[in-house]
Amino acid sequence: MTTTRTAPDRRARPSHRIADLLTGRRTAWAVALVPVLLAVAVMVGVGEGERTTRSTDGLPDGYDSTAGTALLDRLPRDTTTTAVVLFTADAGELTRDQLARLQDAAAELGRTGTSPTGAVPTQSGPTQSGPTGAGPDQSGPDQGGPGLLPSQDGTAALTVVALPSGSATEVADEVGHLRTEADRLAPDGVTAQVTGPAAVQADLAAVFDGANTRLLLVTALVVAVLLVVTYRSPVLWLVPLLVVGIADRFASVAATQLMAALDVAWDGSTTGILSVLVFGAGTDYALLLISRYRDELRRQESRHAAMATALRRTSEAVLASATTVVLGLLTLLLSVFPTTRGLGLACAVGVVVAAAFALVVLPATLVVCGRWVFWPKVPHLGEQVTSESGTVFHRVGERVARRPGVVVAGTLVLLAVLATGLGSIRLGLDQADQFLDRPESIAASERLAQSFPAGLADPTTVVTTDDGRQVLDTVRSTDGVTSARISGSGAGITVVDAVLSTDDETGTLHRLRSALASYDDTHVTGPRAQALDARDASGRDRLLILPLILVLVLVGLALLLRAVVAPVLLVLTVVATYVAALGASWWLFTGPLGFDALDSSVPLLAFLFLVALGVDYNIFLVTRAREEAAEAGSRGGMLRSLSATGGVITSAGILLAAVFAVLGVLPLVVLAQLGTIICLGVLLDTLVVRTLLVPALALVLGDRFWWPRRPA
Fold this sequence. Notes:
Layout: H1 2-12, H2 14-23, H3 28-45, H4 64-72, E1 81-89, H5 96-112, E2 149-150, E3 156-163, H6 168-185, E4 190-195, H7 197-207, H8 211-231, H9 238-262, H10 268-297, H11 303-330, H12 338-369, H13 392-402, H14 404-418, H15 440-451, E5 460-464, H16 468-476, E6 481-490, E7 493-500, H17 505-515, E8 522-525, H18 527-561, H19 565-590, H20 602-661, H21 669-701
Antiparallel strand pairs: 1-3, 1-4, 2-3, 5-7, 5-8, 6-7
Helix pairs in contact: 2-11, 3-9, 3-12, 5-6, 6-7, 8-10, 8-20, 9-10, 9-12, 10-11, 10-12, 10-20, 11-12, 11-18, 11-20, 13-20, 13-21, 14-19, 14-21, 18-19, 18-20, 19-20, 19-21, 20-21
C-alpha cells in the first residue's frame, strides 16, 4: 500500500518530472549538448562586455576625494595625469656635466608630454615658486635649469611630465614611451626611473596583462589534479572539469555583458575572482552530485533512474546553497564602491551559471557517458554503499558520539585561540604596499623619498572651481602643509598640489578639508586622501552589509530546514570560523608573508565568501542528516550523514581552499590576503567545524537541534 501511494505522489512532483526529463534515455543527449552549444555560440558570437573605465570606479560614492577626482576629469584631457621622472647617480653625486645634460633631457621629456616646460614641484614653499606657482624659478646647471629639480643631497634630480589621460591601456602606453625616452636620454652613470600617479596606474594595469589567463590555467590545473586524486580515475575527472570550464567562460561573458548593459563598474580582478568562484562552487556541486550518483548506481540497475534519484536528492541542497551564496553576493550592491558592486553582481551571475550547469548539463553528460566513466572503480548493482559504514568519517562520528560535550568545548577553545590575532589587526594599505612585487613606480617613489621631501611624487591634490589664488593661500597656511603650488587650470577649474608633512598626514587632511569648507566646489583628493576615505567607506560597508548577510543566511537556513535552533547554531559556527581564520591569517601575514596591514576591503569580502560558502557544507551535512533522521532518529541521522557526506565534503572543501589560494597568482596584495583568509577558513570549516563541532552540537541537543520540528 505504501508503494502504490508513494509512486504516484513522486511522479506528480514537478522536481521528479524535471529530473526524469533531464536524465531520460531519449532526452539526455539533447540536455547535454544543447546548453553547451548555446553557451559556445554566445561566447564566440557575443564575447565579453566592454565598458569605458572611469577614474572614480574604485573610489567610494559621496566622498570628498571622489568628488575631487570627478572634478579633475573635467579638466582638458592633456592636464589630468602626471609622471615624475627620477634621475639618480649610480655612484656619489651628480656632476655638473650630468646636470647640464639632464636639463636638456628634462626639456625634451617635457615636450613628449603635454607640458612644454616639464614644470616641477617646489621643495620648500611659496618663496621658491615662480610667478605662476607652477615651479621653481631656477637657472643654470648647478640649479638644474628650467624643468629640472636637483635634490639637496646632490644624488638625484627629477622632472614632472604631464601626460594625456585616458584608459589604463592608453596611460600605460604613454608611460612606457616615457620610460624608453628617459632611459635613452639619461647620461652615463645616471639611472632613470618613472613614478608618480600615471606610472602607478600603468604598473597596476600591467599586473593584469595576461594575469587572468594564468589564473584560469592554474585554477583548472589545480581542479584537475584534485579531481584525479578524489576519483582515482583517468576519465571521470574530465567530465566535471569540462562542464565547469564551459560554465566559467560563459559566466564571464554573461556577467560582463550584464554589467556593461547596466553600466556597473568592474576591474581586472573581478573576472579573476569570478573564475575562482565558478570553478570552486561548480566543482563542489559536481562532487556532491557524482558521489550520490555513484551510490545510486550500486542500488539501481538503470543509470538513468540512478541519476534521476541522485539529482532529486542533491538538487535541494545545491539550490539552497546556491541561493544562499547568490543572496549574500547581491548584498555587495549596497556598497559605496562601484567596483565592489560590480564584483557582487558578477559573482552572483557566476554562481547561478555554475549551479545551472551542475544540475542540468552535468547529470545529462554523465548519463550519456555510462557507468564506464568511473573506470577502473566502476560501481555495480548490489555492491555495498561505502558511505554507510566503514569510512574514516564513520569512525570520527563514533568518537564524537562518545563525548560530544568535550568535542564542543575543545573545538571552541581551538577557534578562540586562533582568533586572538584579531586584536592586532591594522586596516589600510599604503600605495607602495599594494603590490607583491615592487614595480618601477614604487621602487622609484621609495628612492625619491630618500632625497626629496616625502609626498613630492604623489602630492595631495586640491581641486576647486573657486578662486585658485585664495585656495592656494589657504592650503599654504594650513598646519602640516610643507609646500603647495598651482599645477594646472582649465575649464574654470584650478588644481593645487600640496606636499604634506609625514608627521600627521591624517590630521593634516582633516584640517585641510575644514579650512577649505567655505569654498565652493572645492575638494581634497590624491592617494592619501583617497586611502583615508576608502578606510571610512569600508567601515561603513562592513556595518551595513555584514549584519545583512547574516540575516539573509539565517532566514535561508530557517526556510530550508523549517527549524530555528539548527540555523542559529550553523550561522554561529561559520561566524566563529571567520573570526578564527581572520585572526590566524593576521599572524601569518605579519610573520612569514611580511604584510603590515590588511587592505580595507578584505574583511568584508572574506566574511561574505566564508559565511556563504561555509554554510554550503553545513547545508550538505544537515539536509542529509534530516533525510536520514526520518529512519534512524536525530542522533543516528547525524552520524549516518557524517559518514555519507564526510568524504565528498572534505574533498570539496580542500578543492575550494586550493582554488582560492590560486588568487596569489595575481601579484596584488589584496587578492593574496583574500585568498589566504578564505583558504584557511574553508579548511577550518571543512576539517574542524563541519566534521567535529556541528555533529557534536547536534548530538548534545538531540531532537532539540531541529526544534520546533522533530524529523524522526
